[in-house]
Amino acid sequence: MRNDGKAYEEFVGLLHRALLNAEAITEQKNIEIQRNKKIVDSCGVEREFDIYWEYELAGITYKTVVECKDYNSSISLEKIDALIGKIRDIPDLKPVFATKKGYQSGARSKAEYNKIDLLVVREQNDSDWLDADGTPLIREIHINMTIQMPAHITDFQPLLDVDWAKKSLGVSLSSKITISGLNNEILIENEDKGEKYSLRKLAGRLAPLGGKEYGDFKKEERFNLGWISGPDFRYKIKGYNVSYTLSQPYTEPMIIDFSKELVGVIEYLQKGTKKSIFRNGIIKENLIPPKR
Questions:
Q1: What is the pTM of this model?
Q2: Using CA atoms, how far apart are residues 201 and 178, in angstroms rounded to an integer?
Q3: Dihedral angle, C-alpha 289, 269, 261, 13, nearest 10 °
Q4: Does the pLDDT of residue 3 top 70, yes or no?
Q5: Are 267 and 119 in contact (CB under 8 A)?
Q6: Within this chain, do residues 216 and 88 fall inside the same structural domain, yes or no?
Q7: SUPFAM superfamilies from the entry (predicted)?
Q8: CA 17/CA 20 separation, integer angstroms
Q9: pLDDT of amino acid 167
Q10: At 22, is the secondary structure helix, strand, or coil?
Q11: Are residues 194 and 118 in the same domain?
């Protein structure tokens, strides 16, 4: 029973384009994969092939043709004979046969004798997520991401060094001052510890207190020598009082599904290997697991 032959030809062409792109030869050659390629044989008969590409290396032209059959049953000997007949009078062709399900024993023997590579080109199945010895491969990764937002500062009161203010500013001020500015413009310097950070970074450093994990908190920070500065001010301070809120962390599940990235698989029956082609250009080669 036949399915959509054109769609299958496109699928086979797509996977081979990915393989050619991964080969070093394509760094030097712009190889074009052609569909329904017509070639006139030595008898003057026009022959059509489902997929064709060629490239030149060291003065020699290498030509490959792929016969694609989208069948739900194994390929018979007659289909291999038909391909042999098509290429008999066209020199220097490398013939390849591609199908979904496989080949009858007679077809495999005839193809091997005539140096025709047999491929099973298909979409993924459960066997592609098993190693050759039956060990399961990772298909999905489930992650629970716990996200903790930084603290939200609701009030910030710097404690002015009154003696410095009287001497340097010539004014008498209370021990508290009010400032304004963006949280990344206002900087706190604690010279006791050699630290300098903005209000934005301070929010990221604030942690739970008193055994609570989230909610409203107040913190007092004191130091002998410190400064608070902004675009148009710089005051000497002895510390600050800060009120802040920590929201309850939340968990967001995430699933990485590698199977969605696997475009298709090519099995090389004579070699006993297969190549898995992923969307990001990664090609993975494995042994074909034995049938159980």
A1: 0.67
A2: 20
A3: -170
A4: no
A5: yes
A6: no
A7: Restriction endonuclease-like
A8: 5
A9: 85
A10: helix
A11: no
Cβ-in-10-Å burial (0-12, 13-18, 19+) of 161 comes to: buried
Compute the CA torsion angle 121, 127, 130, 134 (nearest 10 deg). Answer: -120
Residue type, 234: R
pLDDT tens figures, 102-161: 999 999 999 999 999 999 999 999 999 988 788 898 999 999 988 888 999 999 999 988
pLDDT level of residue 26 (50, 70, 90 thresholds): low
Same domain, 129 and 266: yes
The size of the chain, in residues, is 292
- Classify residue 30: in a domain, yes or no: yes
Are 163 and 53 contained in the same domain?
A: no
Q: What is the mean pLDDT of residues 209-216?
A: 91
Amino acid letter, 36: N
Q: Tokens 């989230």 appear where?
A: 214
Write down the residue that tokens 């059509």 correspond to. Answer: 48
User: Tokens standing for 105?
Assistant: 């024993």
